[in-house]
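Hi,

Apologies if this is the wrong queue. I'm a grad student, and the batch job for Mitochondrial inner membrane protease ATP23 from Lunasporangiospora selenospora produced an output file that my downstream script rejects. I'm not sure whether the problem is my script or the file. Here is the sequence I used:
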Amino acid sequence: MAQPETDSTHPGAPAASINSPHPTEQLNTSEKEKAEQKAFSQWRRNLSLITGLGLTPEEFQAEVEKADRKQCELRKEQLIKSSPGVRFMMNNLAKAGCPLAKNMFDCGVCDMTKSGGFSKDHGILLCQNGFFSKKHQEHTMIHEMIHMYDHCVFNVDWSNLRHHACSEVRAASLSGDCTWTREVRRGFYAFTKQHQECVKRRAILSVQANPSCPSRDAAEKAVNAVFESCYNDTRPFEEVQI
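Support response: The file is valid. Your script probably expects a header line. Output copied below for reference.
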């Protein structure tokens, strides 16, 4: 059987008692190494995500979608708790008999032309890859909640272009989607009737995307036919939120 080594200066004394670190020091060293390795792994993962190096296209896309969804969900929770506009609409949906639970907001991947959508059967989709800021997500949530409110209160027939046009006019007008800063970001700005022009333009684009709409001309006619009355209908708000 092997015998323990001894220090030559102190015969019989185990070398470990002189040369080896205390067990607590060994534990601390081990924990420090694990923390450093974890930090390095996270740094390497973040670098790979930023640069795409070391990842297949599929892995890179999966990581991007994971990060987008995490941010969308976090902002959603924050806005439900703290956004006056979001909370106002949730309260008014409840009063109208159509309460909106937070799990009816679903973050998902969309094509880059969209930031959100409303379905009478599934609730509200938030396009996790379509937001450039928390404020943008806030406006989108309010926009889609206005569609939900209209569906609940006014029994909107979404295949009817005038019904759809009216809800799009109201949503674009009341959600903050047509604020001056948003329009400047899009490259549109004017000193007179900027808000009205934005509302009309965006409503036409949305109606044009309706499967029941045969052409842009039909979308324009539908929006023009309802614009004045629907633009002036600010329910449940007291006035336009510019």
